[in-house]
Amino acid sequence: MNEIILVNAALTLIEKLLPVVTDAVKNGQVTPEAQAELRQKYTALRNQADTAFTGPEWNIE
Amino acid sequence: MNKIPKLQSSLFHPLSSIIIVALAFLLLGSFAAFAQDTNIATGGSPVAPTDAPAQITSGLESTITQFAQTHPWVIALLSFLGALRLFIKPIMTGLHYWAAQTETEADDDFLNEVEHSWLYTAFLFSLDWLASIKVAPKPNNSSNALRALLFILLPSAFILGGCAALDPAGVYHGDQILHKSELVTTTSYEVIHTYVSWEKENRVALAKYPEIKQSADVMRRNARQWFTTANALHDAYAANPTPENGAALNTALAVLQTALNEAVKYMTQAAAGAPTASGAATTVSASP
To answer: DSSP assignment of A20-32, as one string?
Structure first.
């Protein structure tokens, strides 16, 4: 059971990192669409700055 | 595909060959004795016996008994191997189960230590070689593959993503530093957030790796400041893209990348079941 949880965590990481590599390698050049998508993610992250670090997972216990 | 090597390994290792040859000799011997007895009984004419199976069994028994009397070490060896097959595997399985059920980690560590000692390794090799007894399960190769994949992906993400040529028609207008800044910031947040959530959800299972909680707590304590600093330096560089501002921004990004690397390292190590390096949890500094 624990192994499954841990492997799932590794897969989650792969899911997050794989698109970055794929986008970079796909055309040898970051397209305007990919750039716009990244900018959108970045802006969204900054807009939620107040809540991005407030969940229970951020509490030190 | 995999059955052929397994069959070969079980049929053709030395002891199996010896046992097969010995059994063949025993059978031949019993048939020879049986044939000799019938020839004597019938005065040399090949007449079929009236109770052939009983005579074969009787001849085989007497031959085995005679063989055991003249070569007692073979019987002792076969009995010993049979006993190993009966006891070793259930004992080791039971020990693993017991260690997993108890709350203390001391027994897990002790069992792990024993299983990684050269003596136990040599013992397992001998069991496998002499009697085809495999006690320990094979290591989880899928976890190792995941770990290898992540270690390839992680540097690739920033070497390729951070240095890839930008189409000048895009929102970054070809500015690599700005693009890298937003790439590192968003990816680092995703991974660090995944890491602290994973550590909280699996704290009991991860208790054997105290450095993971220490590392996650360092991130909980400082992540907000790291991102605030990186964002402020991002804005300063965007407003005034000088080399000095670019260098300051890169310094802030390096802190995020270090935290990201650490999160990936611990998650993949835990997923692969490998012990983490003691004291390595403080590689992320508290200030950029």
So the answer is: HHHHHHHSSEE-H
DSSP B134-196: --SPPP-HHHHHHHHHHHHHHHHHHHHHHHSEEPTTSTTTT-HHHHHHHHHHHHHHHHHHHHH
* B144, B190, B215, B264: best to mutate for the A interface, most A CBs within 10 A: B190
Residue in B182, B194, B199 closest to A38 by CB: B182
Distance CA A9, CA A1 (A): 13
Is the ipTM value over 0.85, yes or no?
no
Decide: pTM greater than 0.90: no
Amino acid found at B185: T
pLDDT at B237: 97
Which of A18, A30, A43 should we substitute to test contact with B (largest number of B Cβ atoms within 10 Å)? A30
Specify the pLDDT at position B219: 96
**What is the number of other CB atoms lying within 10 angstroms of the CB of residue B65?**
10
